Design the sequence.
């Protein structure tokens, strides 16, 4: 018996050493080039970005297997923030430890940050010039069709039964008619889903997921990383807490310093606090967050005019990186219009950096804190039920976004009326913009009828908007 026990211990020790000594053969330099390539091709929103990563990381480079890729993606889907960027952080960390995760995540963001910063400069300096205004006029009309497509795409995946359909409807009524804050909607959906999953109700069980594609499936054992767990990826509470403390300080200390130096009502403090809050509640992707951001940035802070949110989304749609990068444009314009004693362009640049910082530092925090414990989280039925319900509620929020965008795109004037205690935004029919209606209709036909790519549609509408502006100007 003692001999058998010793043999069992020896076997476990050999298995542990085999995992630790397994080398995937991918140098950090090669990984850097691959992540740079992924970043440059990360167009098309999260679905397109995840597809690009799968094609390069799994199919082409064969770094990790299909199951491990989906395993990581499922965890990232549980988190607030852009799941594609977080997936890059996770895989980078899995392959090359902490530095690998940092590099993969930063490269994923950098091209989009630089692109939108350049477009924001042009927008702030020349946005009123006819041809530039025409470009954004065309983008704005096309983005409306893109948002409608997002409602249909996410709704078809999330509204699997009548319960989820009812949750989406309640969320829409809450935000559109009752003006309930988006974070409260997310919280209520999470509680309902958690309880439904905890009690084993069928309607709250998650179903389906992202499809990685067809064709031969690469097994974990055949991948460069293998099927074992790397030594650095095993749960280590001490490491997770140390990394989390460092990232939490990087996230919150700058905001505390701004608050102490300039007070609560300074534009930089407001930007830091507001977008930090968004980093915690942005479940369901960028489109869900934009409904709340648009209302707050326009109505509460006065950072943007209603139509300008669509201009920013058009920038994010046509540049690489996560769609949530549109928040950078919001922060840029907020400080540009409220620069204080600074030069407006300098203030706007600093605000763009601050917005990007508080939006993405938490993404690294979520991954480094939780990734080593992914197996436990993945098997939690109640947590999975909460996330399924949040996604259903997000469909209603995005529908609100589509209507809000539509009103401010297709009509030059929107009036707010009170009806039985409810505040409703209704269009002034005489202010209809026929050119915007025509471009939006054309974009919808291109996307839904002819399956034209989003980027092609946006570029075509941008050119059409410029030509129309020149013709009537």
Sequence:
């Amino acid at each position: 018996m003692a001999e058998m026990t010793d043999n069992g211990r020896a076997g476990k020790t050999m298995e542990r050493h085999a995992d630790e000594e397994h080398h995937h053969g991918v140098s950090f330099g090669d990984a850097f080039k691959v992540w740079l390539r992924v970043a440059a091709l990360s167009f098309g929103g999260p679905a397109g970005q995840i597809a690009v990563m799968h094609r390069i990381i799994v199919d082409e480079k064969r770094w990790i297997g299909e199951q491990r890729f989906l395993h990581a993606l499922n965890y990232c889907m549980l988190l607030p923030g852009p799941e594609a960027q977080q997936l890059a952080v996770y895989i980078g960390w899995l392959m090359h430890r902490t530095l690998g995760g940092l590099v993969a995540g930063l490269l994923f963001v950098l091209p989009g940050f630089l692109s939108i910063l350049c477009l924001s400069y042009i927008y702030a300096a020349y946005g009123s010039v006819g041809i530039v205004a025409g470009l954004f006029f065309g983008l704005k009309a096309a983005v409306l069709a893109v948002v409608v497509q997002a409602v249909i795409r996410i709704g078809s995946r999330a509204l699997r039964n009548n319960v989820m359909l009812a949750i989406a409807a309640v969320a829409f009524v809450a935000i559109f008619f009752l003006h309930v804050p988006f974070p409260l909607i997310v919280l209520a959906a999470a509680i309902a889903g958690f309880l439904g999953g905890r009690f084993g109700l069928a309607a709250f069980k998650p179903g389906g997921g992202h499809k990685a594609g067809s064709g031969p499936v690469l097994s974990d054992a055949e991948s460069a990383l293998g099927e074992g767990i790397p030594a650095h990826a095993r749960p280590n509470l001490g490491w997770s807490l140390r990394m989390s403390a460092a990232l939490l300080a990087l996230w919150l200390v700058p905001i505390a310093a701004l608050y102490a130096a300039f007070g609560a009502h300074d534009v930089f403090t407001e930007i830091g606090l507001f977008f930090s809050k968004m980093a915690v509640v942005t479940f369901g992707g960028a489109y869900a967050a934009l409904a709340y951001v648009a209302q707050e940035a326009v109505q509460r802070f006065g950072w943007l005019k209603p139509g300008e949110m669509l201009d920013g989304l058009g920038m994010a749609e046509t540049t690489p990186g996560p769609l949530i990068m549109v928040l950078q444009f919001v922060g840029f314009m907020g400080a540009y219009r409220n620069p204080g004693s600074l030069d407006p362009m300098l203030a706007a640049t600093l605000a763009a950096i601050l917005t990007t910082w508080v939006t993405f530092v938490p993404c690294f925090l979520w991954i480094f804190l939780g990734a080593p414990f992914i197996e436990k989280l993945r098997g939690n039925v109640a947590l999975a039920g909460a996330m399924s319900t949040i996604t259903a509620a997000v469909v209603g929020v995005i529908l609100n976004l589509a209507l809000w965008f539509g009103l401010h795109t297709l009509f030059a004037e929107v009036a707010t009326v009170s009806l039985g205690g409810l505040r409703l935004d209704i269009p002034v029919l005489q202010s209809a913009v026929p050119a915007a209606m025509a471009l939006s209709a054309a974009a919808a036909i291109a996307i839904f009828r002819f399956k034209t790519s989003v980027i092609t549609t946006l570029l075509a509408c941008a050119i059409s908007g410029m030509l129309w502006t020149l013709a009537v100007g």
